[in-house]
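Practice problem 4.
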């Protein structure tokens, strides 16, 4: 009773290592300990401990040759147990599921056909066990194979448990499964990732060839958990179903001994494989029956419509009480799990039942094929005129993205008559309507080259009438009374592509801006761009007629005026210049900065503009003009032009001297 109670808390009872007990207690009595399935190795003496009462007299098997590998796996389990607790699973449940997965592989002939590690391990452990036990046990190969199984596969069990406890891999397995065909697709995807971790890249093929191992219900439980479904009582994500639980040593040895005597020949799959074969065959027969039923409905649909590209909707897919659309969607989602014969049967009905491109494209092609069979091949000589609207839109989309289509899609379009020659004829049609995507691409290229989207109405770019197209886009947006989707795309290219004032005014504004600030990198002048003198006259006119401009136009003009003035006096030259300026008595009013006034004088001298066009940032032009006349009369400006200054200031000195000379000539 104590043992039974302790098993629930600490795990099964195993025979303790006699050498360790003798070393500690000084005697050679037989001992038993509670040993979980992940703590069966005595690293010191190289022994794998066995459960007592298992139908055999052995207490342990010698694994000295694998002690290092098994000990490392046993130490690694501590980290796996912590990860399992953090993920919400009990370490015992995670280990049981991982052991069931690995033992299922142990029973598969497909696994042993490619496995290269377990064979040498099994030979070494069995040789040591037979050498120590001798022939007194009276066992054959299958009994020894079952007894040493847990010792041979223990490193892989720990690795699989680590993968099952990894939340990233669980998320990936849950996303890969779609709740179809007992979630075998998600199990295969997880097995592929697991095979990379274990160095066995062919594990996915073993899962595909099998009849549904423990990974399949585990993936299904993950999907149900993500959907918020409440699992049955006691059957959570880590529950191992009865058919998937591995055969233990006691039951397996009793089963083998009851079927034949010691040393008899056994199936290659072992005793456990014989026990599980019936359930797997029934599942395969049921899946084959369901496939044949769906295939018959698919054959009827092909006879009536000529294809298997029906939509996945109840209205289109359910016929005679069978949801053919969903059935085909399941077949496409799990196409890798179909046998070669099943895939050939579907391909015989419709070669494009599972194309590598979107299914809606294939449905559109079948619809266009039916039209071609009734009215003849398509041609682009008349710019696709006279076709139904749905067909014209679909064909224009294929022509626009023809280069991005796969080779198979291009061949299918050629069957409709839409080959490369016809596509060239379509592009050469002079009055064709360009798709919005193509027009946006031309507009984006123009905005990148010239920094604006206000060309003249007659502007043409590579045969595309960009100016006229933009005019139509402005008309449509103004009629809508709100920003359209196309207008939003154009606003992202140029915020003033559709101003409330004339387009010519906006185009002159861009020219003035480029003349004042210089062309940005990569920007070019557009054909017929105004010169600097013309933009200067235009800016003077806009300054004079400010009251007639809109508020936003005034803001744009102020932006240009701000660009016109740039500081010319350097900080290193100002101490020298301030000592030369003659102070003037202050008679009240606002006191102005002498440096600001001097900057205003230099701006007029360097630009040659009238005082009335002085930028507002430099102050009132009348006050600056009065100070200019006083400094000119008392010789202050002449002294400024003759004083040695740093190199950056010599340019404005020369311009100021020329301005003073011209003023003296006029007087």
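Answer key:
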């Amino acid at each position: 009773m104590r043992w039974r109670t302790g098993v629930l808390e600490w795990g099964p009872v195993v025979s303790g290592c006699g050498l360790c007990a003798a070393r500690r207690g000084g005697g050679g009595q037989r001992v038993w300990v509670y040993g979980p399935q992940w703590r069966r190795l005595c690293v010191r003496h190289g022994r794998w401990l066995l459960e007592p009462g298992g139908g055999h007299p052995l207490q342990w098997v010698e694994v000295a040759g694998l002690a290092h590998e098994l000990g490392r796996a046993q130490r690694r389990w501590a980290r796996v147990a912590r990860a399992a607790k953090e993920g919400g699973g009990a370490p015992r449940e995670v280990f049981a599921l991982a052991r069931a997965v690995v033992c299922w592989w142990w029973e598969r002939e497909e696994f042993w056909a490619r496995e290269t590690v377990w064979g040498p391990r099994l030979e070494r452990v069995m040789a040591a066990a037979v050498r120590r036990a001798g022939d007194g046990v009276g066992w054959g190969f299958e009994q020894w194979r079952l007894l040493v199984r847990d010792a041979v596969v223990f490193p892989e069990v720990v690795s699989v448990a680590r993968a099952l406890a990894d939340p990233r891999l669980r998320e990936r397995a849950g996303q890969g499964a779609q709740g179809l065909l007992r979630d075998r697709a998600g199990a295969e995807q997880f097995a592929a990732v697991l095979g990379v971790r274990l160095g066995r890249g062919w594990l996915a093929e073993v899962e595909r060839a099998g009849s549904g191992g423990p990974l399949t219900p585990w993936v299904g439980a993950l999907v149900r958990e993500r959907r918020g479904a409440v699992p049955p009582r006691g059957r959570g994500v880590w529950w191992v179903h009865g058919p998937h639980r591995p055969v233990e040593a006691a039951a397996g040895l009793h089963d083998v001994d009851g079927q034949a005597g010691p040393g008899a020949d056994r199936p290659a799959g072992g005793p456990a494989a014989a026990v599980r074969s019936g359930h797997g065959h029934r599942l395969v027969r049921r899946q084959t029956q369901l496939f044949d039923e769906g295939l018959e409905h698919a054959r009827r649909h092909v006879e009536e419509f000529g294809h298997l590209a029906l939509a996945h909707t109840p209205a289109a897919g359910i016929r005679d009480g069978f949801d053919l659309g969903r059935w085909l969607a399941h077949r496409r989602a799990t196409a890798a799990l179909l046998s070669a014969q099943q895939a050939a049967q579907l391909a015989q009905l419709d070669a494009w039942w599972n194309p590598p491109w979107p299914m809606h494209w294939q449905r559109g092609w079948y619809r266009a094929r039916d039209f071609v069979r009734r009215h003849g091949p398509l041609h682009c000589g008349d710019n696709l005129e006279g076709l139904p609207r749905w067909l014209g839109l679909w064909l224009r989309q294929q022509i626009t993205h023809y280069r991005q289509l796969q080779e198979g899609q291009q061949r299918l379009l050629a069957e409709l008559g839409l080959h490369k020659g016809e596509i060239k004829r379509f592009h050469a049609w002079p009055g064709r309507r360009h798709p919005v995507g193509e027009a946006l691409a031309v507009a984006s290229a123009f905005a990148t080259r010239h920094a604006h989207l206000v060309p003249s109405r007659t502007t043409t770019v590579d045969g595309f009438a960009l100016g006229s197209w933009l005019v139509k886009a402005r008309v449509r947006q103004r009629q809508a009374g709100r920003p359209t989707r196309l207008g939003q795309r154009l606003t992202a290219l140029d915020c003033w592509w559709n101003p409330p004032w004339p387009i010519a005014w906006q185009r002159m504004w861009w020219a003035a801006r480029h003349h004042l600030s210089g062309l940005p990198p990569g920007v070019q002048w557009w054909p017929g761009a105004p010169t600097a003198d013309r933009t200067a006259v235009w800016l003077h006119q806009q300054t004079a007629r400010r009251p007639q401009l809109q508020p936003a136009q005034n803001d744009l003009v102020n932006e240009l005026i701000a660009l016109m003035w740039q500081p010319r006096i350097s900080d290193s030259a100002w101490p020298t210049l301030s000592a030369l300026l003659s102070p003037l008595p202050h008679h009240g009013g606002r006191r102005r900065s002498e440096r600001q006034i001097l900057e205003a004088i230099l701006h007029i001298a360097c630009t040659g503009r009238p005082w009335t066009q002085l930028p507002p940032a430099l102050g009132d032009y009348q006050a600056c003009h009065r100070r200019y006349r006083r400094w000119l009369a008392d010789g202050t400006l002449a002294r400024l032009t003759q004083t040695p200054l740093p190199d950056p200031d010599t340019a404005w000195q020369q311009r100021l001297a020329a301005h003073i000379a011209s003023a003296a000539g006029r007087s």
